[in-house]
Write a structure and sequence with these properties.
Blueprint lengths: L17 H13 L6 H14 L3 E5 L2 H11 L7 E5 L5 H8 L3 E5 L1 E2 L4 E2 L1 H7 L4 E4 L11 H11 L2 E5 L7 E2 L2 E2 L6 E5 L12 E5 L2 H10 L8 H6 L19 H31 L6 E2 L7 E2 L5 E5 L4 H13 L5 E2 L8 H4 L6 H9 E4 L7 H15 L1
Parallel strand pairs: 2-3, 2-6, 6-7, 7-10
Antiparallel strand pairs: 1-11, 4-5, 8-9, 8-13, 10-11, 12-14, 14-16, 15-16
Bound molecules: pyridoxal-5'-phosphate (PLP).
Length: 380
């Protein structure tokens, strides 16, 4: 096996073609580069794909989740239950809204939030639960819906990674009252940066659309089309969390190709799953029967659970030209949250022993085989 200085097999790659180039060019030529028809179309297609009434485009998952927390009145004095095993944005956003994150542990088999631990951590101050669909694998949303109803809590699904995944045959976005998606470059469809808030609450969607645009009562596009001339007002204090029409046009092109992306990701994941069956070094994620993941990431755990072995394995891949990433982080071990002294044994074990293998639609069968072969050479 030749040694190389930098990996030639990427870990993740956005899948763009002539369709995205042309869509972006059309938006530019139209001069509607923000708040225009491409955004309206993208929102409509996105909501439909999620089986929901409304999708509100924003500049990222982070700004979308922040906007939602604000719009729902979650803030100082409120506790929001969140897994620590997540990209730290899920936790930061709670702090930005002025609320207090309360960390919960995960099920190490699926990397997803443990509903029993959520139940244990509910206090009189709990206002919301923010479960995460880690690596694109939907969390146990039925349990969270039941808990939220029983305890009168707001349920916001962190669906940053799970566009196109299904739970009991229905798309993520169709179960929760509120779901927030990311359109960052490492997601299954991407606009570079971007996010979508999905909900059946049309009144709230209107509010979110105003708040993303400084609280403006009428969008630019509505004003452009109105006759006689109408003037906007600013009844609420808002933000600039807009996504551009150039991004939205790319998003429309991505959504149109999404079925093919998904099929390819699933084929790669199946090849990994069969190659890793009873593997001596790593354990593949377990997928509950009622869940169909989009395989946004393919995360494995090293069997002995030691970070030294995980790091050595990543180095082994790197030296053979294959890029990998460490698995999802443990947010409670990062500097801003260490003082909370959370004890989350499964989270800590998974964060120390997991890594993610390359997966993206343009990956060839030979690439998948290569990854599995490199893994075997480590095992030997
Ligand atoms: C679970 C999760 N939540 C939130 C985010 C933040 O998304 P964004 O970068 O669009 O703000 C990410 C991004 O990777 C994520 O994986």
């Amino acid at each position: 096996m030749p040694m190389s200085s930098a990996p030639d097999l990427a870990f993740s790659r956005p899948c763009f073609g002539i369709e995205e180039e042309e869509a972006a060019a059309l938006a530019i030529r139209s001069r509607w580069v923000v708040g225009g028809p491409s955004l309206a179309e993208f929102e409509k297609l996105f909501a439909k794909a999620c089986g929901a009434e409304n999708a509100v485009g924003v500049s990222s998952w982070t700004t979308g989740a922040f906007l939602l927390l604000k719009a729902l009145g979650i803030g100082p004095g409120d506790e929001v239950i969140v897994p620590s095993l997540t990209f730290i944005a899920s936790v930061n956003v709670i702090v930005h809204a002025g609320a207090t994150p309360v960390f919960v542990d995960i099920d190490p088999a699926t990397f997803n939030v443990d509903p029993n631990d959520v139940e244990r951590k509910i206090t009189p101050k709990t206002r919301a639960i923010l479960p995460v669909d880690q690596i694109g694998l939907p969390c146990d949303i039925d349990r969270f819906l039941a808990l939220a109803a029983a305890k009168n809590l707001i349920l916001i699904q962190d669906a940053a990674c799970s566009f196109g995944s299904k739970f009991r045959g229905m798309p993520v976005g169709s179960h929760s009252p509120y779901s927030v998606f990311s359109l960052h470059a490492r997601k299954v469809i991407t606009t570079g940066e971007g996010g979508m808030i999905v909900t059946n609450d049309s009144e709230l969607s209107g509010k979110l659309r105003r708040l993303r645009h400084q609280g403006m009562s009428l969008s630019d596009y509505q004003r452009h089309a109105s006759s006689p001339t109408t003037f906007e007002s600013y009844p609420e204090i808002g933000y600039n969390f807009r996504i551009t029409d150039v991004q939205a046009a790319i998003g429309v092109a991505q959504i149109r190709k999404f079925a093919a992306f998904l099929a390819r990701r699933q084929a790669i994941a199946q090849a990994y799953l069969s190659g890793l069956k009873n593997h001596t070094i790593v354990v593949a994620p377990s997928v509950p029967q009622h869940v169909t993941p989009n395989w946004q990431s393919f995360q494995v755990r090293v069997r002995d659970g030691k970070s030294t072995t995980r790091n050595a394995l990543m180095e082994h891949f790197y030296r053979r030209g294959v890029a990998t990433r460490r698995g999802v982080m443990a947010s409670h071990l990062e500097e801003p949250y260490r003082h909370m002294n959370a004890r989350l044994p499964h989270t800590e074990a998974v964060a120390a022993s997991s890594l993610q293998l390359p997966i993206f639609p343009e990956m060839m069968d030979a690439d998948v085989e290569r990854v599995l072969n490199v893994l075997s050479t480590f095992a030997n």
